[in-house]
Amino acid sequence: MTDSEQTSVVITGANKGLGFEAARRLGKQGWTVFLGSRDEGRGRAAADKLAAGGADVVLVPLDVTSDESVAGAVRLVREHTDRLDVLINNAGAPGNIVAPADATAEEVHAVYDTNVYGPIRVTHAFLPLLRAARHPRVVMVSSGGGSFAVVTDPQQPVSKMHELAYSSSKAALNMITIRYAQALPEIKFNIATPERSPTASSPPPT
């Protein structure tokens, strides 16, 4: 079990990019970091790197598109702590940049499975542990591409990125976060929109 005074956080998609950086920073602050990673090998390498720097980190194999994997992640976290202070839904999928007229439902669904259904799966599964914390918080990592104001502003590069799946998935995630916040006031829900820069799950505009 973790120290009852030590803040705990689960971060999905934390083996690289923004998720890894969040894990690194929170680990330096003394938090217990449950590093979620779909690829166990890459996750282990990331966890070992953080541990070498002194972080209290636990690798959590976690595929947000799988109910079974998410349930296993909850069981693993429960082996270490009886509560979860913070959940960061960071895992994301960019999909292919396909023009709306050419996008198929199958292609869009694949992106939604990670970017929309994934955060719902993970949040729902971890709610009991979150409710056991004194001041629980859930952070949804979104994108400017999910903002109606940004996408319709011709001065914004993303307005020229005529794809369907990624931006609409992030718009859906924004609304989902608002609805969670309204329905569960005992848990603080936030949307984080990192400054625009290309990442593995957020492609550059073309």
Automatic annotation (TrEMBL):
Known InterPro entries for this protein?
A: NAD(P)-bd_dom_sf, SDR_fam
Keywords tagged on the record: NADP, Oxidoreductase
Q: Which Gene3D superfamilies match?
A: NAD(P)-binding Rossmann-like Domain
Question: Please, which domain of life does this record's source organism belong to?
Answer: Bacteria
Instruction: Supply one GO molecular-function term.
Output: oxidoreductase activity
SUPFAM superfamilies, from UniProt?
NAD(P)-binding Rossmann-fold domains
To which protein family does this belong? Belongs to the short-chain dehydrogenases/reductases (SDR) family.
Its name, as the record gives it, is SDR family NAD(P)-dependent oxidoreductase
Q: Which species?
A: Phytohabitans rumicis
